[in-house]
Write a structure and sequence with these properties.
α2 (about 45-65) crosses α3 (about 70-90) and α2 packs parallel to α4. The chain has helices at about 10-40, 45-65, 70-90, 100-120, 150-170, 170-180, 185-190, 195-215, 230-240, 245-265, 275-285, and strands spanning about 5, 5-10, 140, 145. The chain has one domain (about 25-95, about 150-285). The protein is mostly helical and about 300 residues long. It starts with a strand and ends in a 10-residue tail after the last helix. A hairpin with a 2-residue loop joins β1 (about 5) and β2. It is built from 11 helices and 4 strands, in the order ββααααββααααααα. About 70% of the residues lie in helices and about 5% in strands.
Length: about 300
Amino acid sequence: MFEIFGIPSQALFGQLLLGLINGSFYALLSLGLAVIFGMLNIINFAHGAQYMMGAFAAYLLLQYLGLNYWGALVIAPLVIGAIGIVIERLFLQHLRKLDPLYGLLLTFGLALVIEGLFRNAYGSSGQPYQVPPALQGGRNLGFMFLPNYRAWVIALSVVVCFATWFAIERTRLGSYLRAATENPVLVRAFGINVPRMVALTYGFGVALAALAGVMAAPIYNVSPQMGSDLIIVVFAVVVIGGMGSIMGAVLTGFALGIVEGLTKVFYPEASNTVIFVLMAIVLLIRPAGLFGRRA
């Protein structure tokens, strides 16, 4: 074992790994928020509750249907995404022409209702969820021990984030979607069902949150509070990256996870506030965020 800046290498790289894990969830969740806000102009405060629902969906699929982690990784995001589409059709579509504040208040209320229902059903204590057997164990890299499951989480997050960015920014479907947010009347004239596209986009953003929840289930306990504990930090990440910026959400999520991990090594007392301090500094210098565009 060697030291870096007087700190044992295993402690430093261990915190960097923890920062990358947190950054993976920050990136996925802020990506979903950025997709929903950038495409639909909805501030989805229910995102944390939908992340929690993804974790609970994996837990319930295992408990009652015997569906393992790999099946839940596919089924849970689809189910929670479908619930998101129902929410958009029943509630959010009626607020589309109003100030985004109304959507924020509605989704905040939905988050409280969802969390309350799960707390009444399962209590406040967390439910365990096992790491899949194929990803148990880890590798000794010499300077640190790398658990296989955590490496998988980081790799999958990078792939999903890049694929989402590519689909929105580099494909015809993404072009239609961006055009529908700018001029829905014109896009409708080309025979595209804009309301359906909007509902599917919201469902996709919700599915990203649910996917993050399934990935988080083996690392953290599955509990009703897991979303509310994370959503404020994720909103700070989105604000720093720039509201609606897809790549800004991804890069900022990973970067701030690493910054948070390093802060735990060099100045642990500030680890819970460093992201919010950075948010305040960024807003003073660039109110639109690091990658956002001025209105």
